[in-house]
Amino acid sequence: MAMPMKFSAEVTKILRHDDDVATYEFRCLTPRPRWKPGQFLHLALDAYDPSGHWPESRCFTMASGSLEKDHVRLTIAAKGAFTRRILAELQLGRKVWMKAPYGDFIIRTSQEHDVVLIAGGTGVTPFVAFMEDALVRNNPPLMCAGGVGGDATDTKGLGGGVWLHYGARCQDLLVFRDFADRCAERFPAFRVDRYAETGATGSTIAGRIDLERAVGHARDGKAATYYLCGPQDMIQAFRLRLTREFGVAESNVKIDAWE
Amino acid sequence: MSSPEEIRRQIATLVGEYYQAAFAPRPFVPGESPVRYAGRVFDAEELQMAVEASLDFWLTAGRFSEQFESTLAQRMDRDTALLVNSGSSANLIAFSALTSPQLKDRRVRPGDEVITVAAGFPTTVNPIIQNQAVPVFVDVELATYIPTVAAIEAAVTPKTRAVMIAHTMGIPFDAKAVAELCRKQGLWLVEDCCDALGSTLHGRPVGTFGDLATVSFYPAHQITMGEGGAVLVEDELLARIARSFRDWGRDCYCGGGENNTCGKRFSQQFGTLPLGYDHKYVYSHIGYNLKVTDIQAAIGSAQLKKLDGFIAARRKNWATLREMLRPHEDRLLLPETPPDSEPCYFGFVITVRPNAGFQRNELVGYLEAAKIETRNLFCGNLVRHPAYDETKYRIVGGLRNTDIIMNDTFFIGVYPGMTGEHLAYMGETFQRFMKGK
Asked: What is the complex's ipTM, to 2 decimals?
């Protein structure tokens, strides 16, 4: 992974989606590292003295690309005491410490096969980073097989297609639908299906993410690579179905499951 | 009572005063003052940073290591710079990383061949042997002391898995062409840049052409932290493997004093361990512990700020010596710079020509008696050292020039601590020796 480093940042914008979900924008006060779409950071609330121990923190996937150097976006859902504390305490102007980047849930597109991104609720954040980087440089990152461990980076263009299947409890909680729609408009190889359990309007499909549809839409769905991010129950259920019901190789199903 | 911050400020001020008192420049006395081949060049900031890190008493890799690694990675245009305790350790980690099972069919296995050179420092080659691969030696050119791409290409066989070569004495081998050769042949390339921090090729830093690169921070090198080195790598997987080999072979990548950085410390499945076995103690490689202390990194951070000045000084000193010794080119083979390169020279390398009328050791003895330090070009010909008597290796195309280097080559300093007085004295001393021959 790139060099993890600690940096401080200040809250510059808060967007409350409902009582339990909010998106925060931060401006970095010290240099921050580069990251790849899908990687995560640790956010601490308590004071940090760089000569001492790192305080209690939690993992959050960056919902922002790496190209805008002093900017970080996080979408945080209340899941436990610490995340509730974040939602209660993070106000405009609040300074916090972060450390990043971590994780190998890195979205790699391929010349040969389609990539299917499946996002439940705030699980869309790694894919937002991917989309934002693509939009900023007006070129979807192509990270194709063939390099070290299949990790070589190439930016010539998108070979295989990318499908985003993005679902939430209600239409209003599809908080990054604009990103997805802009990406789909800009890049013909990037396509989006939106799902909302309630309040679906327009092209949003009513109900939960339809895995059969996701597999069926991919060019050779059995050979595609699937990135799953969202509630644990959804991830585990989809993982089992993809490998058992649809015959997708275990290695082609990527998940990032924190405790 | 003063606050800890105030006491720190007072200590820093005192350390600055100590530097002025203890390390004030001494006048150069020709023939009495030594002209070193290398040496640490520092000011009060290095001492203050070392004390600052000591007062933290974090001891293991901490904030200064993080700062150093991040700055070095940025400077070297690599995603990752992993600090280790020496350049030799960096070579060991870089090569060992290539043996990881995580690289699947591209991993280097026992008996695989690795192309390298025998005219250099042993720890470029030793990791190949320590990992039970077979070094395949090719000859180098005189005046540049690096191999040609053709020599490397001629040594490639179906058993070849990697090329691991040093930019010896700071002089870049054609890493761009070698990287292209490696890409075509499916070989790994490790650039040993231990002598070459600051050298560039085609406008790019050496160390950015291969899969992995290494640098050294021993006091003789371009910057120092006493003992220290780094592995430079761009690829995520190789970086993670290298970190694992550095940190006992563990799978976990938490830094010192950190827990659960991965967010799944107790929920993963590894090998036949029970589900959720503490990730902090899961081992994916047969690794080492080759980390540095934060005190070393603090010194290195101060040195890194001075690197551009050090590079410029080394180039200037080299050019001055090159000009001073030009009149003796009929008897001394003077160093050359390869095309499209801007070396950050480690030293000024001289080979005594066959018709010089004197042997290398006569000249070296004269210089040493005049207090001008000299060094051989490291091990000369590695395969002639007793340590390698029982080592399995192959030589392709003979090692004629390597033997010439062993017999007739040496180097003198160009390090930034040298002054115009030193250089002038060196020129005069060579002149006196030549006149007497």
From this structure: 0.80
